[in-house]
Amino acid sequence: TLPQLKFFSGDAAHSSTQYVDAANGSTFLLGGIILKWGKVIAANNNTSVTFTSNFPNHCYSVVVSGGVAAGTQPTININTGSLALNGFVIKMVNGPSDVFYIAIGD
């Protein structure tokens, strides 16, 4: 298997021991892009999310989704000023709720 096709946790050294195949994990994509994903339980107001490992250079985008099985559905947003190499902040109304995320960076 090519090292580039294994799961990657964000270490700039691209070590084969740094790939994360888990519920909260990441993978190294061809072209140098890193994809991270995960699930957190977010409460109302601000919930900090920390990636399993930092992006080495940039966090370009984070997309979130979530909801509850019954009752009032939460409003889930990202504090865009909070995007960082190590995570981001979720702003929520009508929580708590499971929140799933996908982040793209390099």
What's the overall geometry?
A: elongated
End-to-end gap:
22 Å
Describe the main β-sheet briefly: 4 strands, antiparallel
Question: Mean of the pLDDT scores?
Answer: 82
Spatial strand sequence of the major β-sheet: 1-2-7-4
Beta-strand residue percentage: over 45%
- Helix content percent band: under 10%
Account of the 3D structure:
This protein has 106 residues and is mostly beta strands. Helix content is 0%, strand content 45%. The protein contains no helices and 7 strands.
Short description:
This protein is mostly beta strands and about 110 residues long. About 0% of the residues lie in helices and about 45% in strands. It has no helices and seven strands.
Question: What is this structure's SSE topology?
Answer:
Blueprint: E1 25-28, E2 34-42, E3 45-50, E4 59-67, E5 75-78, E6 87-93, E7 97-105
Antiparallel strand pairs: 1-2, 2-7, 3-6, 4-7, 5-6
